[in-house]
Design a protein that fits this description.
Blueprint (H helix, E strand, L loop, with lengths): L1 E5 L4 H10 L7 E5 L14 H4 E4 L13 E6 L7 E3 L7 E8 L2 E8 L11
Parallel strand pairs: 1-2
Antiparallel strand pairs: 2-4, 3-4, 5-6, 6-7
Length: 119
């Protein structure tokens, strides 16, 4: 099950999401405009207990702020998923493998005032 939400960079929205993002219910969380702390990371005291936090491939290589992150439930074996490298702070993807074969899931943030993510 996937949780998807635009947090509009809000700490309150981030905390509300973490409170409601039950790791026994959700497998993935796809976040647009995440709340990031002063060192440009998503953090919470219990986050790493249940979730692997995935940033865009070039998250630390650019001065601009990442507009997408993914949370992957630690119940999903790292042998069953991998990051698909994409040179964008607005687009991310992972590929999941299993008995169902393979599936790629994309997390895309496209700002209202621009369509540069699409080109």
């Amino acid at each position: 099950k996937i949780w998807q939400q635009n947090l509009r960079k809000s700490l309150n929205a981030w905390e509300h999401m973490l409170h409601n993002l039950n790791p026994n219910v959700y497998d993935l969380a796809y976040i647009q405009e995440p709340y990031l702390n002063m060192v440009n990371l998503a953090n919470a005291s219990t986050l790493s207990q249940y979730w692997d936090v995935i940033y865009p491939s070039n998250h630390n290589a650019k001065t601009e702020r990442s507009q997408t992150i993914m949370l992957v439930n630690k119940r999903i074996s790292k042998n069953n998923w991998h990051i698909i490298p994409i040179n964008s702070l607005n687009v991310m993807a992972i590929e999941l493998t299993g008995l169902f074969s393979k599936v790629r899931i994309y997390n895309i943030y496209n700002p209202r005032e621009s369509d540069h993510t699409l080109h």
